[in-house]
Amino acid sequence: MKKRTVILALALMLVAAASLAAQTYYIPLISKGFQHQFWQAVKEGALKAAKDFNVNITFEGPESEAMVDKQIDMLAAALAKKPNALGFAALDSKAAIPYLQQAKAAGIPVIAFDSGVDSDIPLTTCATDNVAAAAYAADKMAELIGGAGEVAVIVHDQTSRTGIDRRDGFVNRIKSKYPKITIVSVQYGAGDHLKSTDLAKAIIQAHPNLKGFFGANEGSAIGVLNGVKEMGKIGKIVVIGYDSGAQQIAAIRSGEMAGAITQNPVGIGYKTVEYAVKALKGEKFPKFIDTGFYWYDKTNIDDPKIKAVLYQ
């Protein structure tokens, strides 16, 4: 009888262990938006990683990158489901911190992606080095306008880490390296191409000698391009963008846009899930995972290395 009891207990332990081994981690990813193709590409990478690492993920974000409150609501709802880990791309680098503190208190590892927060709670951030990327865009702008003249910048926001870093990377490089270039305006279009178009047109009207325009994300860049077109300034104002998408790719092929910085959005999504799994396994890793960036224009847009990180 005693032997049978021991065997039964061992069997129950094996069943419990098998059940635990079969448990699939749940990892929600809260992005900054859903309206740009960039975020669809990030989602694609996250889904691929979910399949590779056998985890369940969800991927959501607000309709607009101006909807900080809605993103916070999504974050709160995700935490209420008691996930195993969390991926988060902050619209506001400070607003989410109380909720991330809740995650930390509950033992939920947080992996930041694309845009970090002003906190050390995320175990790492999977993102582009946006300061370096925007500085490279500034170097290209200087080269294309002959090292002198007036330029302007439209950024998606001044609250997210990506908005701040891309603005500062571009502006600081121009100020420190190109004394004959003047930045006449820095405006914020919420990543909305219609709003960014209106801003671009107003800047061109106010500064008729403008020689260059930098749009710091997909929506900003398309807005700048449309504004330059509507003001009849194609060929007279150098336009440099950020990210890709069908419209930017077509504009670069046609020569309407000089070029752009592309990130590796599929890689950002993949690495976010990969490092969430590593965190759940107790692995150690750096506080920043650089997913890389590339400059592309009509001379290299068909290079296999570039095509691999462009999205339509």
Automatic annotation (TrEMBL):
InterPro entries tied to this protein: Peripla_BP_I, SBP_2_dom
Gene3D superfamilies given in the database record: 3.40.50.2300
Molecular function terms, GO-annotated: carbohydrate binding
Domain Periplasmic binding protein per the UniProt entry, residue ranges: 29-284
SUPFAM superfamilies xrefs: Periplasmic binding protein-like I
Organism: uncultured spirochete
Protein name, as recorded: ABC sugar transporter, periplasmic ligand binding protein
A single cellular component GO annotation: cell envelope
Signal peptide: 1-21
Location in the cell: Cell envelope
Keywords, alphabetical: Signal, Sugar transport, Transport
Family recorded in the similarity comment: Belongs to the bacterial solute-binding protein 2 family.
